[in-house]
Specification:
Mean pLDDT: 92
Helix content: 25-40%
CATH architecture of the largest domain: 3-Layer(aba) Sandwich
Distance between the termini: 11 Å
Number of domains: 2
Structural class: alpha/beta
Strand content: 15-25%
Number of helices: 13
CATH superfamily of the largest domain: Glycogen Phosphorylase B
Order of helices and strands: EHEEHEHEHHEHEEHEHEHEHEEHHH
Low-confidence stretches: none
């Protein structure tokens, strides 16, 4: 039996990362059901106050006393050294055949650690998972230190890799561009995000069609690439008589900016900020909306295609949704997806109402659920990843 470890670095508190921790938990559970040839152990490095271990018994959380860059560059470096030391200890303890690393922004400490591990375990394979084009994301988030470190050390790290897993084709092309042309043996896999059907059940209530009112809903950490500003400007431009409201669940880096923008336009009563919701409150919210909102501005990350985490979740719950990118897993004419252009133009609300009207009488819930089960669930995706690892190790 081959043994691997899945490694992820989390730098903020549990409540900001509950979605991704849920994903890790499902990923490990379903991956290890694929067979007996490979087993994958989780190693999640988190802040000391994370307090999530008892909620996710299948995951191993390693508490680290690390500091954010806002607390000073020296604290940041000391924190990185502490987390990487714990990472090395876990690798030496497990002695895995491969490491599957959820790629963080590169830095010299991580580079030195990986180079050291490859030296003492020359047969150990190193594989990374990429959710984005890292340089473009840290630039968009205005993090000059992270941009500099990724620019300098990202290519060095990629040149050591045996495999790269990317969430979309455009991300995979970007990762290939960051590897030296002299490196020929790196293998690549494109694998979109997955959904746990047990954790994302069909919503128990589907709101009835109301020709006079449309309720939109977004759930997530508000970021620039979600493009919520496009919807707000579209609502501001809309002069029709039909009612429409956008409900936003979550906070994130764009929260304050969106609130400020809303105060400058006449449509502020059409947008409602609900803050964070969990449990029954979140389930009730999903039951109340007609159309969900996925990412509308991945082009700001220089991405033409993608697979954001929320898209398969909306599909599994049976909620029609809006996207602003090319999702390669969803057929072009799938009837429960409203596609908008990949640019910064305001969303045309009249066209959105036309899409809403097409949903009358359609059994979207069952059709969407069946599609998610066949194409997007963890059992399907982890089987592909399992075979990828098997061919590498």
């Amino acid at each position: 039996m081959k043994k691997g470890i899945f490694v992820a670095f989390i730098y903020s508190n549990f409540h900001k990362n509950i979605g991704i921790i849920n994903k890790f938990d499902s990923f490990i559970h379903y991956f290890n059901k694929n067979g007996t040839d490979i087993i994958l152990k989780p190693v999640i490095l988190v802040p000391e106050n994370f307090e999530a271990g008892q909620l996710f018994p299948e995951l191993k959380f390693i508490p680290i006393n690390f500091m954010a860059p806002a607390n000073g560059f020296l604290d940041y470096i000391q924190g990185k050294i502490a987390s990487v030391k714990k990472f090395i200890i876990e690798v030496k303890r497990h002695k895995p055949d491969f490491i599957y690393l959820r790629y963080p922004v590169a830095d010299p400490i991580l580079f030195i650690a990986l180079k050291y591990l490859k030296k003492i375990y020359p047969d150990m394979k190193l594989i990374t998972e990429h959710q984005t084009k890292e340089l473009f994301e840290v630039k968009l988030l205005k993090k000059p230190l992270h941009f500099f470190l990724e620019y300098i050390f990202g290519k060095y790290i990629r040149n050591m890799l045996d495999g790269i897993v990317s969430m979309s084709k455009s991300i995979s092309v970007y990762q290939k561009s960051q590897i030296s042309s002299k490196i020929k043996n790196t293998r690549f896999l494109v694998l979109g995000n997955s959904v746990d059907l047990k954790k994302n059940r069909i919503r128990r209530i589907v709101p009835g069609y109301d020709s006079e009112e449309l309720k939109l809903g977004f759930v997530g950490n508000l970021s620039s690439w979600h493009g919520i500003d496009r919807l707000i400007h579209g609502l501001s431009d809309y002069i029709g008589t039909r009612k429409i409201k956008l409900y936003l669940v979550g906070k994130g880096s764009e929260f304050d900016k969106l609130k400020s923008e809303l105060n400058l336009i006449p449509s502020k009563e059409r947008v409602v900020f609900l803050g964070s919701l969990t449990g029954k409150d979140l389930a009730d919210f999903y039951c109340s909306i007609n159309i969900a909102v996925s990412s509308l501005a991945l082009h700001r990350l220089e991405m033409t295609d993608g697979g954001p985490l929320k898209t398969p979740e909306y599909m599994a719950k049976g909620i029609p949704f809006i996207i602003g990118y090319n999702d390669l897993e969803i057929p072009p004419h799938f009837p429960f997806v409203f596609r908008v252009s990949s640019d910064d133009k305001p969303i045309d609300i009249n066209k959105l109402f036309c899409f809403y009207d097409t949903l009358i009488g359609k059994k979207q819930t069952d059709m969407m659920r069946k599609f998610a089960k066949k194409n997007m669930c963890f059992s399907v995706k982890t089987a592909k990843l399992y075979n990828f690892f098997k061919n590498l190790v």
